[in-house]
Specification:
The chain has 195 residues and is of the alpha+beta class. The protein contains 2 helices and 8 strands. Strands 1, 2, 3 and 6 form a 4-stranded antiparallel β-sheet that branches. The longest helix has 41 residues, at 154-194. The termini are far apart.
C-alpha cells in the first residue's frame, strides 16, 4: 500500500514539473513582440554598406524599433563570423561598412545575416541575403595534398595500406592454416586406417 502511494506521488510530482516547464516555455514564446527586419546591401565606389531597418506593429501601426542592437555576421562552417553590430537610431535603421576581403566560396558568394540574438523584447529574429561580395576561394593548386582536399596525404595512404595489408595478411594466414590442418588431419586419418 505504501509503495503504491509513493509511486502515485512520484507520478504526480513528475506531471506537475512537466506542466510548469511547458507553461514557462509557452509564456516565454508568447512574451516577445513581432519584429520585421529589412536589410539593404549597397555598393558605392567599392564601399560596401549594410543598412538594416527594423519595425514592429503596435495597434495596427508600424513603429520603428529604436535603440536596439542588431548583429551582422556571415555564417561559416562551424560558427558565425561576426562583422559588427548596428545600433538602430530613432527611425529604426542603421548602417555598417562591410569588409571587402572575406573569402566567399568558389564563386565568391556570401550569405549576410542581420539578427536580433536573445533580445529581451524581440527574442531571436534574423534576415538573410546572399550576395556576390566575397573573394573566390578556388585558389588551391591541383597537386596540393591535405586532409581537407580531395587527395589524401601520402603518409596517410601509406599507413592505411600497411595496416590493411597486415590485417588481411592475418586473415589469409588463418584461412591457409585451417586448410593445412584439415589436409593434415585427412592424411593422418588415412594413415591410421591403413594400419
Amino acid at each position: 500500500m505504501m509503495k503504491r502511494a509513493v509511486k502515485i506521488a512520484m507520478i504526480l510530482a513528475g506531471l506537475t514539473l512537466a506542466y510548469s516547464v511547458y507553461a514557462q516555455e509557452d509564456a516565454a514564446e508568447n512574451s516577445f513582440k513581432d519584429v520585421v527586419l529589412k536589410m539593404n546591401l549597397t555598393e558605392v565606389d567599392s564601399i560596401r554598406t549594410v543598412t538594416v531597418t527594423a519595425t514592429t506593429m503596435d495597434n495596427g501601426k508600424e513603429i520603428p524599433v529604436a535603440g536596439e542592437t542588431v548583429s551582422v555576421f556571415v555564417p561559416r562552417m562551424f560558427s558565425n563570423l561576426p562583422i559588427g553590430e548596428i545600433t538602430l537610431d530613432d527611425t529604426g535603421s542603421g548602417t555598417l561598412e562591410f569588409p571587402s576581403d572575406l573569402p566567399g566560396g568558389k564563386e565568391g558568394n556570401l550569405t549576410i545575416v542581420a539578427a536580433f540574438i536573445d533580445n529581451a523584447t524581440y527574442g531571436n529574429a534574423e534576415k538573410r541575403e546572399e550576395i556576390h561580395w566575397g573573394v573566390p576561394t578556388d585558389y588551391l593548386p591541383e597537386s596540393h595534398r591535405a586532409l581537407w582536399t580531395q587527395r589524401a596525404p601520402g603518409w596517410m595512404i601509406y599507413t592505411l595500406s600497411v595496416l590493411l595489408a597486415g590485417v588481411w595478411g592475418h586473415y589469409f594466414f588463418a584461412i591457409i592454416s585451417l586448410i593445412r590442418i584439415r589436409i593434415d588431419a585427412k592424411r593422418k586419418a588415412k594413415a591410421e586406417y591403413r594400419l
